[in-house]
Amino acid sequence: DLVDWQKPLLWQVGYLGEKYDEWVHQPVDRPIRLFHSDILESLSKTAWYVVFMVWAPVVLYLSWVSYTSLAQGNTRLFSSFTTEYSIPVHKYYFPFIFLLGMFLWSLLEYLIHRFVFHMKPPASNYYLITLHFLLHGQHHKSPFDSSRLVFPPVPASLVIGFFYGVLQLLLPEVLGLSVFVGGLCGYVVYDMMHYYLHYGSPKKGTYLYGLKAYHVKHHFEHQKSGFGISTRFWDHPFRTLIPEETFEKED
User: Fold this and answer.
1) Domain Fatty acid hydroxylase: where (predicted)?
2) What is the pLDDT of residues 88-111, one digit of tens each?
3) Would you give the distance in Å from CA 28 to the centre of its chain?
């Protein structure tokens, strides 16, 4: 092996250099330790149900806040530019804004997975290799480690807080919150689905069965394509769809 499995891997992988990309895409069925510190190691792991327990109540609460705030009738689109032509946003629009947030999350999910998680770090850059392994490389190296299949709540809260701040800057407060909570729900669905695609047993012929087969191909055959997890929709326009395999019957 190119690494010492008895020691934390995070500080070793950066020394692999040009061998890293090939090494990280050769899966193993064994747990990975990332950090020397037990506290940091515990923060990098989580059970799948913790994500649901932490974020589902947040989604429900913020949905209620968004709906009741819109019901006051004070939210108007483009009000920061013009009051004469601003558009009122009624409470009945909330389900559609929520679904828009989920749709935008699906795009964000694809973009992050493709351009951040699957960036190819320069062989000479120890720190970018280390960052890549922390973000996603360790999942491809050990895809069956059940404790690392979902995003732990502590680091996730930092990323979620960042996107909340961006939406608050771009949109009126309540409208931004409504889009945000839809996106947060999309994230929870994505994380739960990702875990299920690794450990679930969907019935053959179902949507989830097709996604599971698709994700397995991404891990073991087509690491440079098939970046959609909760949906294959964005793989079509971005031309990263894993081709359907056909088998000709032998005579």
Assistant:
1) 98-240
2) 777 888 999 999 999 999 999 999
3) 22
Question: For the chain, what are the domain ranges?
Answer: 9-235
Paired with 244 in beta bridges are none
Residues 105 and 187 sit within 8 Å (Cβ to Cβ): yes
Please, which residues bridge with residue 76 across strands?
A: 88
Rounded Cα distance between 89 and 66, Å, is 11
Q: Token pair 């994505």 is at which residue? A: 190
Two tokens, residue 46: 């989580």
Predicted model pTM: 0.88
Query: How far is CA 167 from each of CA 62, 157, 195, 225, rounded to the nearest angstrom?
Result: 14, 15, 28, 29
The Cα 215–Cα 54 span in angstroms is: 26
User: Cβ of 69: how many Cβ atoms within 10 Å?
Assistant: 19
